[in-house]
Each structure stands twice: as C-alpha cells, then as structure tokens.
User: What shape does this take?
Amino acid sequence: MQILKSFLTERPPSTGKTTLVHQILTNDKNFNPIFINCRSGQFDSPENVYNSLSRQFKTFFDKQKEYLKNLPNFEMGFKANIPDFELSSTKKEKEEITFAKVNWNFWNSYKLPQPILVIDEANRFSRLGNSLNGGQELLKSFLDWLVLNTKEQKSFHAILTSSDSFFLDWIINDLSKKEAEEYFEKHVLPRYECKELEGKFDQVCKITGTRMLIIDMYVGEYERSKGKLADRDFSVYELEYDKLYCGLNPNELHPYKSRPPLWKDDDLIKTMEAIVNAKNQGYILERELIKEIGSKQVNSLINYNFLHRRPTKRFAYDIKCLSNEAILTAMNMPSVRAMEDHLSLVSSNKK
Assistant: This one.
C-alpha cells in the first residue's frame, strides 16, 4: 500500500494511476470499491451532481443485491438504509443534497466488505465552486463528509484521482510549520510508537516539508529501517530524483503524454536553480520564470508535475507570501532536495 500511495501521489498524469487503482481494488475480494467516474456527468450544479452520482451509485447497489440473492433466508423485499448520502427525488430536494453519517449495521449483518470510494477526475467537483445555486455549500459539505468518514471516524477509505495538475489548489496544500509539527508530534509519532524522533521536527522537516502524507511516509520508513533511514533513501526523494533525471532528458517523457514536453534540459536546469536559490523564501514568481524560459515551457513543466502553481496566496499556509501574483514551488520538499543534488552533479560535470 505504501508503494501504491507513493505512485498515486508522485506520478505524472496519464501514467496509469486510475488503471492501477481499478486493478488492485477489483482483484481482491476483500475490497468492495465504489467507482465514481466524474467524466461521466456534469458537476456544475447540485442537481447535476445528484443526477451524475445517483446513476453510478445505482450500479453499485444493484451489484450488492445480486450478491445478497445468494444468501440463505434473505428476502429481496428489504428496506435497507444503504446509501451514505440521501438521494432525493424532486427537483427542489435535489438542490438540497445532504450528506449523512455512514451506518454500517446493514453491511456488517451480511458480512459485506465495507466499500472503498474511488472518485476519478475528482477535480470536476471544483466546478461547483462557480455555481450560484448552492454549489459552494455543497462542495464544502462533501469535503467535510469525506474528512469525517475517512480521517475522523475511519468509516471507509476514499481515493480521489485526477489528471489535473491544478487539483491540489482546492483540496489540500502544505500545512504551516506549526500545524505540521503538531501533527508530527501528536499524531504520527504515537501511531508508529517512534519516540526516537520526538522533538526533532526541525530536522525531519528539511526532507519532508510540511505535507501530512510525506511526514507520515517518512516516519513509517524510518521505523522500518530501525532508525537508519538516510535522506537519499527516502522513497519520495528517490521518486523525485528519478523524475528530475527523466526531466533532464525530456524526450524520454513523451510516452507519458499525448503532447511532448516543451522544455529543453537547460530550461529545467534554470528552473531548478531558481527554486533552490529561493529555498528560504519558498517560492518564485511565475512571471519571472516565464521571462527566463518562456510561457510554453513553464506551462509544460507544470503539466508534467515538475512545478506546482499556486494562483493565489490564500493557499500558501506553509510559506509567507507577500505577493498577490501567481507563484511557483517545487512539488514538495524532497523535490527541492533532489534539485540540489542534481545541480551539484551538473556543476561537477562542467568542471
């Protein structure tokens, strides 16, 4: 699962993430996935969300009914409280979709595997934010519902996939350092029973940054290595280092995309230099990099997940951003460390 988590987090779009998730979850009888394909439907209003989701949930519940038909002494005339959210029938009610607490009594009674919610192209939900008819409130309720059932109550797992490199702008970004340290000390270390790292977040943060998933992965790998994990052996660093190596040979990246990369190796080197030189600041201005290497090159690097674009400082919880302009950062802190090592290698090769 750690390898799957790394792959889903770090790989570029169109590299088979959705296919991998589908294959793993459907080939194991212990998993009971609900696949929601947001390519199939509209998500620009509460009513369209209702129509798009209810159609796909019906397929899932029909499958469960087929399973239950084979159970002894089971009558198909049941009235079960299966759906996790209340699907209404009238147009007015469709505009007021609500999300309820999951009730597992029915599932557990018949030993049905608890579902795993898989939402592909989840970035389509961002269109609700532009809806004037209650879309913003519905989007907030949906995200709160996911957090409640996955993180707080641990009712089920949810996997959100996207081919949109701008998806993270509206889901979650890096925590502030204070929040990340609290998460590290109060939640991650106790879970792994790792007392050795207590009070050492400043050291750990140099390789993990303040992203929850990466902090969690680092501590897990640190424990499995019995405290002998070197920064360069951290899996996220290795992924970023390998990705940058391919980026310095952009022709090798072409199979990942329908469009080839639009930058040359020198463009990526200049980008890495800009990111590393601004390491203490934490970001560079998009317009400055465009002046340096060109807008098509910058957009292509963003599209291939070598850069993370933040269109507004409202989401910059981990850095103190004084500018109201669009800013660019590395994808994560391990990527910054990998950039430093690549630049060191480039410099030594020039001598």
